[in-house]
Fold this sequence. Notes:
CATH topology of chain A: Alpha-D-Glucose-1,6-Bisphosphate, Chain A, domain 4
Low-confidence stretches of chain A: none
Number of helices of chain A: 3
CATH superfamily of chain A: START domain
Structural class of chain A: alpha+beta
Shape of chain A: globular
Helix content of chain A: 25-40%
Oligomer: homodimer
Largest sheet of chain A: 7 strands, antiparallel
CATH architecture of chain A: 2-Layer Sandwich
Largest interface: A-B, 25 and 25 residues
CATH class of chain A: Alpha Beta
Strand content of chain A: 35-45%
Amino acid sequence: xxxxxxxxxxxxxxxxxxxxxxxxxxxxxxxxxxxxxxxxxxxxxxxxxxxxxxxxxxxxxxxxxxxxxxxxxxxxxxxxxxxxxxxxxxxxxxxxxxxxxxxxxxxxxxxxxxxxxxxxxxxxxxxxxxxxxxxxxxx
Amino acid sequence: xxxxxxxxxxxxxxxxxxxxxxxxxxxxxxxxxxxxxxxxxxxxxxxxxxxxxxxxxxxxxxxxxxxxxxxxxxxxxxxxxxxxxxxxxxxxxxxxxxxxxxxxxxxxxxxxxxxxxxxxxxxxxxxxxxxxxxxxxxx
Lengths: 139, 139
């Protein structure tokens, strides 16, 4: 496996989830408080974490139900990988399918990323459903 | 991707984690309270969940640092898949690498399982570190 893939249900409006994935206030509400984001296609967002880790994600796709980033700087194993959020409305809210793909090898680091992404997707879920996520404090 | 792969660190003794993966009290402490387990190689454990879901896992490997189950009954997409826990001691505890492999297709259900496994692995981590996990209440 070179791909991380998580699906979850979020009881919120599609537009709220889209905002959480695309604007500065939203991203700071569930991933990391320390974020610089312009939010236009082709622009590069920077995310910094308390551990000292950081990554720069280029926005390669911005559609109402699909958001995709390409990692252009950060951890060696992340550079060149893509992060994709796919949203689909259902009766009770929105199904979010998340994938992080393009890793060169299946390493323990990728396994740790999979575990950590589930934590932050739970944070996204809480943020969209209650207004309160559990983002990283940032650098 | 047809494989779920998560790695995490648990600050506990290897033997405690092994017990949590192999005996009835341990498994009831983090996965589901509703478990029947004999615990010998070749035996079949049954796990039941509040949703009505269940699965039967045959113990195919029991080594001090590797435990593997094969799903012999339960959700159609699980039957024939394997769940593997690999433990390795490090300076501050144990690294746990978890994989669930052998799915025939990458479906949203597999993505949901990946997300849910991360929840239960967090429960395993809490159970081993504090004695208190967040297991399912069972059927």
